[in-house]
Every structure is written in C-alpha cells, then in structure tokens.
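Hi! If you just cloned this repository, the fastest way to understand the data is to look at a raw example. We've pasted two of them here, unedited. The first protein comes first, obviously.
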Amino acid sequence: MSKRDELIAKYAADLKDKCGVTPDMDLLTKVTIGCGPSIYNADAATVSGSDESELNTVKQNFLIKKLGLKDSADLDKGIASVMETYGKSNRNKYRAVVYYLLTKHFKKESAY
C-alpha cells in the first residue's frame, strides 16, 4: 500500500467517523491527488478552521480557482458549513477532507 493510499484510507475514515459521510472513494482519490505534495507535509495537510487567512486561502485557491465559483457570501457560508460538519472541536482537519466536503457541498464533482 502506497503512502498516498494510506492517506486516502485515513481521509475516508475521517469522513465516516467525524463527518458521518460515506465517501465516494473515486472522488476522494481525485481530490487527494489534486492536493498534490501538500498532503505529505504535516502543516500543509491540515486546515485551521479558526484561522481567517487560511480559510480565505481555501476560498481563493480552491473554491474560486479550482472549482471556478464566483466570490460571494455563499462561499463563506459553505466553508462555515463544512467546518461545522467536520466538527469545530476537531483540531486536525485534513485539507483533502475539507476539499472533498466543499466539492460535494457546491456540487462541483465535475471539476474532477
């Protein structure tokens, strides 16, 4: 099992256990691959739900650039909704899981 496969399995477990979501493994794999090498870096692999600048980066680089969404208050609401789903008390919010949930939230699976 490759390192990436191990991470994908860990993300799938997070989706099931912490978010109550049954993951679409094909989409989760594509989202994880889309994250690139950041998934192997401990700091870059997670998203801080309380760091405003980090959430803005997610909005700019992922929602607007990658998914092609227009900047609006809906994007902030979507991010807040995903952070709520993941659990505010959860310290480690994996970037791939957050991106997967955002992709599902905005119904942009076609971007992958």
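Ok, and the second one:
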Amino acid sequence: MARRRDIDRLAELEELFADLWQVPRFAAGMRRAYRPQIDVFRGDEPEQVTVVVEIPGADPDQIRVSLDGARLVVSGNRPRPAGPRRVWYRSEIEYGPFAREVALAVDVDPDGATATYERGLLRVVLPLAERPPAPALVAIEVRRAQ
C-alpha cells in the first residue's frame, strides 16, 4: 500500500512540473509571443550541427536566421490566419513574433551554413569549423525546400 502512495506522489510531482512549464490558465488569452520548439544535434558524417525549428504557418520569407559568433538566432513572425471576425471559444495555438537563440557548443563555419524551410520545419545546417571563425554577424538565407 505504501508503494502505491509513493507512485501516486510521483505522478502528482510529474504533473506539477509539467504545469509549471505551461502558460497559466488565467493568462492563456494574454500571450503575446510564440516560442517555437527546437531540436539541436550533431552529426559525424559529415561533421555538422543541425538545428530544427518547428514553425508551422510561418512565411519563410519572413524568417531571419543569423550567426553571431557562437550564437544562432532565429526570429520572425507566425501570424494568426486572417479571416472574418470570430467569437473565440478556445485559443490554444500560439501566434505572434518570436526569437530563439541557440548557444553553440562547437565552432561552426558560417560560410557553409544553410537554412531550408519545408512543411513547417526550418532546418539550419552548420558545418563544423577547423578553427574558430572571426567574430562577425552573418545572415543565413532561408530557402524553401524543393
């Protein structure tokens, strides 16, 4: 019986931590920014860092990607679809301006960087550099995937 209570307490703690990362219900209608989800991983063949940003509904022409030393910055706007005036019963999908910054743990070659947008996912590929690049702000063009 004590083991069951411990499991129940663990489930309650898990729910508490999950709730801490959510927007409080009273503030759900007051959100002013969108925070896209990001995956970052390193590949060895070829040696590169890949950053995947989930931005469904965004116009790739309005997404800005830049590399500032060891920081990748992705920003833009995910607009709410236009249409006639609506009476909202629920609004859980986030829209609005966004900016995400990713600290890179390795040196990357800004000249070989690419960014493609397909089916709501922005994929930024950053080849590893043999030596640290000179500090400079580098814009990376976002292309639509073929």
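That's it. A detail worth noticing about the second one: The mean pLDDT is 83.
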